[in-house]
Specification:
The protein is 47% helix and 9% strand. The chain is an alpha/beta fold. The strands form 3 sheets. Strands 7-6-5-4-3-11-10-9-8 form a 9-stranded parallel sheet. Helix 10 packs parallel to helix 12, helix 10 crosses helix 15 and helix 12 crosses helix 15. The chain starts with 11 loop residues before the first helix and ends with a helix.
Length: 732
Amino acid sequence: MSNEKLPDSSNLDQWKQAALKSAPKTAADPAKWLEGVKWVTPEGLEVKPLYTKKDIENLPSTDTLPGFPPYVRGPQATMYAVRPWTIRQYAGFSTAEASNAFYRKVLSTGGQGVSVAFDLATHRGYDSDNPRVVGDVGKAGVAIDSIEDMKILFNQIPLHKISVSMTMNGAVLPILAGYIVAAEEQPEEVGGSVAQKDLTGTIQNDILKEFMVRNTYIYPPAPSMRIVGDIFRYTAQNMPKFNSISISGYHISEAGASQALELAFTLADGIEYVKTGIASGMDVDDFAGRLSFFWATGINFYLEIAKMRAARLLWHRIMTNFGAKKEKSKMLRTHTQTSGWSLTEQDPYNNVIRTTIEALSAVFGGTQSLHTNSFDEAIALPSDTSSRIARNTQVIIQEETHICNVVDPWAGSYLMETLTQQMGDKAWSIIEEVQTMGGMVKAIESGWAKMQVESCAAETQALIDSGKKVIVGVNKYRLAKEDTVDILEVDNDAVRKSQVARLDQIRKTRDSAKTQAALDALTEAAADPSKGNLLDLTIKAVRLRATVGEISDALEKVFGRYRATNQTISGVYGAIVESQESWKAIQADIKKFEGAHGRRPRLMVAKLGQDGHDRGSKVVATALADLGFDIDVGPLFQTPEEAARLAIENDVHAIGCSSLAAGHKTLVPQLIEALKKQGSEDIIVVVGGVIPPQDYDALFAGGAKAVFGPGTRIEDAARKVLDEINKAFPAK
C-alpha cells in the first residue's frame, strides 16, 4: 500500500489550482472569477463552493448530542430512529360533514393526526349568516359556527387517541372551547366523554404574526395578548398534554421573508409570549414546556435545514436567559409545512418534486410533525388524488428510504455546521435589533416588521419576473400548452345555506336566557380581568350553544375590532427591473396617458371579503407605483359595495381585485354590479391571484376585463391593465 500523502484541506492552494482549470475562457481574471463562485443568500450570507474542517474549528456547537442542550441535533435522543415524525394533512373545506369525511379517510390511509383549516368567516369571528362573509363561507377552510358543527367535524374520531392541531388565532377562544366541549360530549361508541387532561394537540394562538402578515385578527394587540395569557393559564392548569400555542414562522415565510427573517421574527414573537405568561403571574416552567413552533420549509434546501437547527440553538439560549430550569422549557419542538408559495399553476406536476425536496429538508431539519402540500394548491383546494400523493410522499420517506435510521445525518458537515452558525448569528442580530425597539409588539405596531417582510417579497418577485431567479415551468422551460388539472370546487352558496339553517335551529332550541347570561359574563370579564378567565367563560358559553359570532361580538363590545393602517414600500421592485427595455416602454406609455388626460392612470388594489393574505396585492401595488401608476390600496375586509364606493370617491380608472381564498366568483360580480348601481360602470375591474383557469369564463361573463392567475409577470399585467384603461377612457 502506498505511503503517498494524499491532498487534504490543509493546503487549499492545490484545490484552487485545479478549480481554476474550470474558469471560462471569457474570464479576464480567473482568480477573481473563482472568488465570485459563491451563492449569496437572500439574507446576505455567503455560501462557498467548498467547505473544509477549518471552517468549523472554532464553532461552539458542532460536537453535541441529540436530546441534550443546546438541542441543535434534535430534542430527542433517538429522534426518528425510534419514533418518526407525525404525518399531518392540514385540511378543511366546505361543511363539517365534508371535512370530517376527509379526515377519517386520511386517518385510515396513514395519517396520524388531524390538522384543521377553518374558513375565513370563522377566523374573523363571524357567523355564516353575517352579510360581510357571503363569499367566504366554506371556501378556504371548514365553516364552524357552533358546538354542533364541531361535534360533526370530529364525528367518529376518538379525541382521546387522536392528536388535533387547529390553525386558529382571531377566534381562538370559541374554537378551542368548541373542541373541548366536543370532546366532553363525545358519544359512548367512540370512547365516551374525554377529560380535558387527556386531550392532545395544538392550538395556534399566535396572534402577533397576524398583525404582521396574515391579518386574520379580530381585536387590537393588547386585548389579543390578554387572550393568549388566559389560554396559557387555563391550559397549564387543566390541559397538561395540550400545546397552548404554535408560534408560527410559516406565514411570515409565505408572506415573503427570508429564512433568517422568518427565524428571527418568530423567535422574537416567542419572547413576547413568554413575557406575557410571566406577566400573568405564572412561573416560566409552568407553561414554557407546552410552547411549540411552526416553520415553513421552502425550496432553499440547505438554508431550511440550517434554519431549523439554528432555531433550537437560539431558543435554548433565549429560555436560559429567562431563567427556565426545566430542560423541556428550553427545548424547541416544531411542526413544519412545505411551502404553498413555491407551488406553481404552470406545469403543476413539478410541484410534486418541489414538495418532496421541501419535505426532505424538514426531516433533515428535525421536525416533530409535517404537512406536505398538494401539487394543485396553487390553483384551488386539493383534490383527493393530490392529497393522497402529498401524504404518500411522507409515508415513502418514512418507510422506504431508511432516512429515519440515522439521527441528524447532517451533523459534522462542514457546510451545514457553518451555515447553522451563520443563520443563527444573522437571526440573533435581527432579534437584538427588535429588542432595541422595545420588543416585537413595538416592531409590529410601528409597521417596521411588516415592511421588512414586504421588501423581501417585492425583491423576490422582481427577480422572478426579470428571470434572475429561475422558477421551472414559469420563467424557464415553459410548456407550449398547459394541461387542465381537475380541481375541488366548493359550492359556497349551498354551504352558507346549510350553515344558516343549522344556526337557526340552534337559536330556536337553546335556552336563550342562559346563553345570553353566559355572553354577558364574557363581556364583563373582558372589561374586568378579575371577573374570570376568558377561556373558562367561553367554554361555559359554548356548552350553552353560544355561537362563534356571538362570543366574538361579546368581546368586541369591550375590545373593539382592529383596523390596520396601510403602508406600502417603494423602489424595491423597480430597482431590479428598471434597466429592461420593456419596463421603460410601459413607463413611456404611462407618460403619454398622463399627457393626454392630465393625470396618471389610477388603480385601486382591493381585497374583498375576509381574505387577509396581502403578499400579492402589496407586491403588485409597489411594482405598479414604481412603473408610474397612481395606486390606492383599499383597506382589508371590504364588502363589494364598500370597495365600489371608495373607488368612486378616489376617482380611479380601475380596480384590481386580489383573490387568494376562492371568493372571487361571488365577490367580483357583486363589485361590478355595485359600480353599475352607483353610476360608475366605466371603472374597469381586473382580477388576480389564486384563480383556476376553470373560473376565467365566469369572471369575464361577470364583467371582469382581465384575469391574472399565479405566475403572471407583473409587467405583463401592467401592460394589459393600461391597455384596458386606454380603451375605457380614450383620450379626447
